[in-house]
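Recall the central idea of this unit: under ordinary conditions, the amino acid sequence of a chain determines the structure it adopts. In this exercise we apply that idea directly, starting from the sequence alone.
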Amino acid sequence: MDFHRIKQLPPYVFAEVNAMKAKARAAGADIIDFGMGNPDSPTPQHIVDKLVEAVRNPRTHRYSMSRGIPGLRRAHAAYYGRRFGVEIDPETETVVTLGSKEGLANLASAMTAPGDVILVPNPSYPIHPYGFIIAGAELRPVPQGPGRDFLAGFKQAVESSAWPPAAVVLNYPSNPTAQVVDLDFYGEIVDFCRHHNIFILSDLAYAEIYFNDPPPSILQVKGARDIAIEFTSASKTYSMPGWRIGFAAGNRELVHALTRIKSYLDYGAFTPIQIAATAALNGPQDCVADARALYRRRRDVLVQAMGAAGWEIPPPAATMFAWAPIPKAWRDMGSLEFSKQLLAHAEVAVSPGIGFGEYGEGYVRIALVENEQRIRQAARSVRRFLAAPPAMSGGNAQRAVVQ
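Accordingly, the structure predicted from this sequence is:
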């Protein structure tokens, strides 16, 4: 049976790549997997210990609170105060989500009427556009990436739109492009959006994975809370991806809308997980600096080793990803076919840029989720692969998404 909303979603490239990886591994291949942004480091021990302690208390086994336990909301508000100098009311300006992905999707459903126009960067993390497509919105992609001026493109899209846009999604540091912005960028876009009555949804999931200046929050801008909500996550910061804990903070109207729709859909994360996340935010932050240093080392090894292999990759300023242009000799085949060839002949898995939107073509995303030895091993395979390119085994890339 064809369901209307399911028909709006394109093929999921990651499933195709996973099938190829599974088949290769079943045949004994040693696949070096840079495909999914799935942190490989263990969750810090003090966070795990707090989970174990909390789960032993049978009182925590009951239904939790969909908007998050009070202690966790206070801890998140305190984080904003320490990190950004922004005062957040834990009762009205923050809500706990089941990861930032769930929060973005549920807010899209809460705030969107059929036909609303939403501006979304392209390429982008798939939930940014498809959360709104599922909600019945009309999307207007705004090109971003190396050599593209997102702010100018955004303003042009607003001014040329036949119907006033309801919201824009921002994501800096960006997944997949790893781009960063400064407070001047946020200040300009806040002023513009306030003038045009456009809500801003800012995804700041990679706030703590940076290698130069700490990324700012849009909520640092005066007047931002009139129109902006911001999503953060424990997944990358504390190596807690499977725990599914994230947050939304900012505009009270948007926080209330998200809180209300969540009250119909879930009872919140398991209470011991929320207690452990509170310990993560309130506890020692050495683990965050350690994670940042780990990704920096991997980034540097990747850039150096792949460069020596003949693949020039710009060093990302933040995130756990590199946004890598396809080597020139291979560019015409497209990112999906290049990714397939790389997997088949070098036993290296990456995410094709086309999966993040049409303007992602010509690139692949490389996740820094393998250790330095494995990165060097991958570079040796890539060197051999680039030296003797095999014939193409398929056609051009199709429109699809990955995670």
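The domain at 45-282 is CATH 3.40.640.10 (Aspartate Aminotransferase; domain 2).
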